[in-house]
Amino acid sequence: MRWSWLLPLCLVVLAAAQESDSSEEEATLPLAEPCDPEACKLPNCRCSSTDIPGNLQARDTPQFVLLTFDDAINIINVETYRELLDNRRNINQCPATATFFLSHQYTNYQLVNELYNKGHEIALHSITHSTPQTYWAEGDVELMRREFGDQKELTAHFANIPANSMRGIRMPFLQMAGNSTFEMMSEFDLQYDCSWPTITNINPGLWPYTLDYASTQDCVIPPCPSASVPGKWVLPMVSWRDLNDAPCSMVDSCFGVPSFNDEDAWFRFIVTNFERHYLGNRAPFGFFIHEWYLRTNPAVMRATVRFMDMINNMHDVFMVNANDVIEWVKNPVPVNEYVRRSCRWFTPSTCWPSSCGPLSASHNGIISQYWMQSCAACPVSYPWLNNPLGRNPPPS
Ligand SMILES: *[C@@H]1O[C@H](CO)[C@@H](O)[C@H](O)[C@H]1NC(C)=O
Ligand SMILES: [Zn+2]
């Protein structure tokens, strides 16, 4: 009786809370306007275009080769990474490196630390890598914060690497989520997204650009962003063409490919795709692949090594991290100046590994047990969505 007056009050408070919730959602980002090249200038703004940054001639432009691997890093695939990349150098004697779009489940963080210390880039590919694809297509900003923002903290902690070294993301299944990934990137100080394929802007290839203004890129896996998100970079996945001239954004998604035991044909296939860039406008050449494809096809692996040996001996080709490509685009310099630069410098970060487990996690009500190699003290439960440091008690 005494409290009955409170009930309407609660409803009012509740209604007010709901109102402020929905007005937050209404505070949408502004729609991006057509790009104005006079207003949009480097280093922090670039219109979507196939023009070479800095108005360089193609022959003066470094040809960047961007090798990326996706998903968890474990004791099996790290063997391939070591074989392919250890002691590999570009012509300027700087380490030839790759970018790893890391997903959390089953990742061994001691190995993440190892790859980081070899100069490779660790980037974000979500905590859960959930299916179905609509989970990502319909993902709002809050989901992106928990999948990627929290993954940055998780990875920094368990791999003992600096959070600010993680600058980029790739969406699982390359499934775009409209504006929400880019809005999240602004909040978590992430610089670029490398999830957006182009199949029409491949010859000449599309160079990286920012989302200050409307993108002219073809949207292969909608929804693509249409809001203005200042200073956030799109590193387009310029598709390869397979033997039937069909586009493919990842090498392992090409359909018309040479026979899997024909090393020479695979080498020619790779070089043909490379030359579209090298003999064209030198847009960064993406070699986007999953490790299993190389492991299960030794001739493809040998062709890849041959290709890398070739480009590592070319005076104007450089295998670098995705983030290094963005940094060059922001401040483009001709190749003769680029080769004189000192190599990228970073502080190595030690791992004192612990073997953690069994650790329990609960997803969709199913409890699973995991083992995890960590460079930090063992968590009480398996790190997961909403519990990125594994500090909450294990599910029972
Ligand atoms: C992105 O933001 C713009 C501008 O607010 C809006 O018009 C568009 O519908 C949004 N896209 C998605 C997929 O939500
Ligand atoms: Zn993946």
TrEMBL record:
Provide the alphabetized UniProt keywords: Signal
UniProt-listed SUPFAM superfamilies: Glycoside hydrolase/deacetylase (SSF88713)
Any signal peptide, and if so, which residues? 1-17
NodB homology domain: which residues? 61-135
Q: Which Pfam families match?
A: Polysacc_deac_1 (PF01522)
Give the protein's recorded name.
Answer: NodB homology domain-containing protein
